Amino acid sequence: MMAYDLSPLWLSLRVAVISTLFVFIVSLALARFMTRRDFFGKSFLEALILLPLVLPPTVIGFGLIVLFGVNGPLGILLEQWLGFRVVFTWIGAAIASFVVSLPLMYQSVLAAFEKVDPRWENVARTMGVSEWRIFRTITFPLAWSGILAGLILAFARGIGEFGATLMIAGYIPGVTETIPLAIYFAYEAGDMEKALFWVLIVSSLGVAAITWVNYWRKKTAVRIGRE
Length: 227
Known about the structure:
By secondary structure, this protein is an all-alpha fold. Helices cover 78% and strands 0% of the residues.
């Protein structure tokens, strides 16, 4: 097999790592808030969080261009305040990965938090423990297996993002060329060997991630059953 430029692999890993980091922080905050608060419009807010799961990637990409484009409200703010653009950059690819990965991570974290027995947290509160310490020493450790599974799925989804990434980041070899874009444009150019090479790479990453998540869930289920 011919030697290929591996920049799409490194760019995909960078995009997935950065988007997963922000997905981790935001989903923890959202899930914690949603499990502890009951308010008017909660179902509507949750529907907005999960909306990227059912929207076509082109719709997500169009929305990102409207927000982060040259004339978009967030695009103008970022260029004026921080001096960089999102459209046609790898940052745009990271934002697209963030948007499509957030619902997966949010669902995993929310389910993990809901499984934590509130009696443990209530006992700590009666002892005067702060909410942050309760979260750090009780809630987070007990929910860790679900959080970790969500992280793996979000990372794998971030690597595989295509449609929204193409719309907001475009295809610029060496700049915004992630693995999914490399596959598509190699196929368009009739370079089936190159397309197959990247298909095998991204498929291997996906299989490894799902296998690990399944192994971890079974291992956790066995441990809980023993306890």
